[in-house]
Amino acid sequence: MNRPIYHFHGGVHPEEHKQVSTQFPIRMAPVPQQIFVPLRQHIGEPARPCVVVGDYVRKGQIIAKADGYISVAAHAPTSGTVTAIALHPVPHPSGLSDPCIQITPDGLDVWTDRTAIDYRNTNISTLRNHLRDMGIAGLGGAAFPTFIKLNPGATQTVKTLLLNGGECEPWISCDDMTMRERAAEVLQGAAIMRCMLHAETVLVGIEDNKPQAVAAMQEAALQCEFPVEIIVVPTLYPSGGAKQMIKLVTGLEVPSGGRSTDIGVATFNIGTAYAVHRAINHGEPLISRVVTITGNVGQAQNFEALIGTPIRELLALTGDSPDPVTGYLMGGPMMGIELAETGVPVVKATNCILVKSARLFPPPPRALPCIRCTRCADACPAELQPQELYWHSRSKNFDKAQDYQLFDCIECGCCSYVCPSHIPLVQYYRYAKSEISAKEKEQQAADHARIRHESRLMRIEREQRERAEKLALKAAVKAEPAPAGPADLAKKAVIQAAIDRAKIQQADNATTNTSSE
Amino acid sequence: MSGLAILLGAALGYAAVKFKVKEDPMVEQIDAILPQTQCGQCGFPGCKPYAEAMATGKADINQCPPGGEEGIRKLAALLGVEFKPLNAEHGEPKPRSLAVIDENTCIGCTLCIQACPVDAILGAAKQMHTVIAGECTGCELCVAPCPVDCISMVPIAENVATWKWKYPLIPLKASH
């Protein structure tokens, strides 16, 4: 049966540059001199450290536990000593530092105990908790905790499990190489997720610019005990976006503001499926990932790098840059973030480090006024009106920007790519989104403070009233002795009885005394 | 005619009782704009009393430093009056900060606990006090009552979680 390929709106064809990093197989990067494991590597609450400075840790040992529901654990990528838990620069657009656990490796790479789980005979909730404690988060870039996506809730059913092998960003090839070399293991991960979701259909979407990955996956699919459909989609950026890939292979659209589980599809990155396989079938937490090092480097290649490896050490493995370096990107040229320095560590979301040069990435031409040509609207895969979003974001008219569904923007950069005026449109959308989110947080904090203030006033009033009542009661008691209640009567009766007894005894004593005389 | 008048009068009378507005909605709307620090810099004992005073025309819209210029603009739009700059008599807008108790100096007098409008300080008599960071609005009301000056206001530093994308600074016109 041939599944029809649907189309999403818009999209662009940037130059691919993918072959430069697929010449050699994935290479194991050596254990670095120092390791910095950030506590905040996933969307949600940062993990909470469960080791202290000076502790000896083994490879794969948990060093920070999930804190709150949207959170996952972090693990020691190799054996060594915890030398600091402190702020260290992290790969983030702000260039700020964030708490990291620093480990000085002992070079022995001694594993902690690893236990495989028989997922077919294990409770699904246990499996989910295990994936959380194994630190599995989406490796496609957003790093959303995977165990939550495997919990569609009581009211929803997920019929389709979709592995996203789109990898549409130029230069990046880590998923391509993972599929070429580890196809069977990727599908073993899919088998676990299929079992956990009770999914009926398993689909793998791959762009047609990765024929070797397609061949490897098809080969592996034949060996699989359940049907897997490998679907080749035309190369068009951003086909690797979750919503775009769902549209391509199922024809379904994720509703505005909704999630893919709303339409019965769960989407996972190729690398995430591989990590799930390692976690369940081998008991290995997520302590390394495949990273593409490419661009202005001696020899571009994919590395299996330990989480926490400073990217400087990976760059050293690729030889000298032929041209002067003008910057570093984490991710691809369309959506990647600028890195302020090379001391930042590889994190779970690091799919690629792209080294820039003026030749490969010439500085953008000066931005000119918007001429409202609407080329951006033609290119927008989310079917938005980028020129309107730009206008309202630029004038800080955030309510209007939200009316134009600003938050459905996936920040893919197609609009900026086609803009003849070279306006950095996405920068305006990011600015507007973060302003709106900050305002919402402020409003929540204000509402919270109002409630606390009002409850305090109520409490003070209640305490005053109670005190006044007590005082009034005391005053009343002093003014007139209370009439005897039943309890008092009983007490009096007891006392009277005792007096009577004493009198009788006295009388008895008197008689005996006289008789003896 | 008179019958109709009686009928309508009865209907209106019924409606007045049935659909009685319990609280002045204007006060609620104004209060929703105010930042709820409960700092009292406006001259009223909290945000709600200031909102009530504004609703009855007894206070001006430019007396809230934590609300800043944006707050004044919102109030002006809501009340249909002209924007005016913040009245400097009531203080200057400051970056949001957090009260921090020097726990070695604290003598456990509970004065700050009594001053805190949002119950953000934890402690008991002759026991060390501490600020629950997540609940502190940065109103500074605890600073003055402290007899040993052990409370300081620390500005909240930007971190990865609170960082915001900046407004793109790109010259749109070619400058020659």
**SSE class of chain A:** alpha/beta
Question: What is the strand arrangement across the widest sheet of chain B?
Answer: 1-4
- In helices, the fraction of residues of chain B equals 25-40%
Compute the separation of the termini of chain A in Å: 129 Å
Sequence stretches where pLDDT stays below 50 over 5 or more residues of chain A: none
Residue stretches of chain B low in confidence (pLDDT < 50, at least 5 long) are: none
Pattern of helices and strands of chain A? EEEEEEEEHHEHEHEHEHEEHEEEHHHHHH
Number of DSSP E strands of chain A: 17
Oligomeric state of the chains present here:
heterodimer
SSE topology string of chain B: HHHHEHEEE
Q: What distance lies between the first and last C-alpha atoms of chain B, to the nearest angstrom?
A: 81 Å
Query: Tell me, what's the shape of chain A?
Result: elongated
- Strand proportion of chain B, as a percent range, falls in 5-15%
- pLDDT averaged over residues of chain B: 88
Taking all Cα atoms into account, the compactness measure Rg of chain B is: 23 Å
Taking the sheet with the most strands of chain A, its summary is: 6 strands, mixed
What does this structure look like?
The complex is a heterodimer of chains A (517) and B (176). Chain A has 517 residues and is α/β, with parallel strands linked by helices. Chain A is 37% helix and 17% strand. Chain A has 13 helices and 17 strands. Chain A has helices at residues 124-133, 146-149, 174-197, 211-223, 242-250, 270-281, 311-316, 375-379, 386-394, 398-403, 414-418, 425-479, 486-516; strands spanning 27-28, 35-38, 48-49, 56-57, 62-65, 74-75, 80-89, 97-105, 160-165, 201-207, 228-233, 265-269, 288-295, 301-306, 325-330, 337-339, 352-357. In chain A, strands 1-14-13-17-15-16 form a 6-stranded mixed β-sheet. Chain A has a 4-stranded antiparallel β-sheet with strand order 2-8-7-4, with no helix packed on it. A 4-stranded parallel β-sheet of chain A has the order 11-10-9-12, sandwiched between helices. In chain A, helix 3 (174-197) links the parallel strand 9 (160-165) and strand 10. In chain A, helix 9 packs across helix 12 (425-479). Chain A is elongated. The model of chain A has no long low-confidence stretch (mean pLDDT 92). Chain B is an alpha+beta fold and 176 residues long. Helices cover 30% and strands 8% of the residues of chain B. In chain B, the strands form 2 sheets. Chain B has a two-stranded antiparallel ribbon with strand order 1-4. In chain B, a hairpin with a 7-residue loop joins strand 2 and strand 3 (130-131). In chain B, helix 2 (25-33) crosses helix 3 (47-55). Chain B is extended and about 80 Å long. The chains are: A alpha/beta (517), B alpha+beta (176). Chain A binds chain B through residues 40, 90, 92-94, 96, 98, 366-369, 423-424, 427-428, 430-431, 433-435, 438, 442, 445-450, 452-456, and chain B through 31, 34-38, 46-48, 117-120, 135, 137, 158-168, 170-174.
